Amino acid sequence: MRSFALIPAFLFALSALPAAAQDDVRPMTAVEFEAFTTGKTMSYANQGATPYGREEYLPGRRVRWAFEGAECKEGTWFEDLELICFVYEDNPVAQCWSFYLTERGLRAQFENREGSAPLYVISESEEPLSCPGPLVGV
């Protein structure tokens, strides 16, 4: 009977946590992710702040992605079992991620490979992703 008395105290303590800390506990839903990202271009980096790539989030769950220093790829995203999955024009295999809002900002965890290091958004803009074509200036 004493263990039941602890449940309300635990729930109260959890509700007192900052919203960012609570959000870090659960992945964003597709609706939350769409509302947070649409119309933005975000730059991602690994934990050591090494630039990884940039993604532009377009209406209709469309995206434009570029690894750092590489050409842009068009794609789409969808929700699958609480994951946000991306498919790009050059790769039909879904790349699935969990996204979390944290005190540090948006964190992305790749779910296709166990033990993958998370990525963090290091900047965001409302400007479109710059996508020079191949062999520009050659």
Q: Keyphrases for this structure?
A:
single chain; Lipocalin; eight-stranded antiparallel β-barrel; disordered N terminus
Question: Could you describe the 3D structure shown?
Answer:
This protein has 138 residues and is of the alpha+beta class. It has one domain (19-125): Lipocalin, CATH 2.40.128. 20% of the residues lie in helices and 42% in strands. Strands 1-2-3-4-5-6-7-8 form an eight-stranded antiparallel beta barrel. Strand 1 and strand 2 form a beta hairpin.
Named at the architecture level, the CATH assignment is Beta Barrel
CATH class: Mainly Beta
Assembly state? single chain
Mean pLDDT: 82
- Biggest β-sheet, characterized? 8 strands, antiparallel, barrel
The third-level CATH topology is Lipocalin
How many angstroms does the end-to-end distance come to?
76 Å
Gross geometry? globular
Structural class: alpha+beta
Low-confidence stretches: 1-23
Strand order of the largest sheet: 1-2-3-4-5-6-7-8
Tell me the series of helices and strands, N- to C-terminal.
HHHEEEEEEEE
| Secondary structure tally: strands | 8
Percent of residues in β-strands: 35-45%
Task: Briefly summarize what is shown.
With 138 residues, the chain is an alpha+beta fold. It is built from 3 helices and 8 strands.
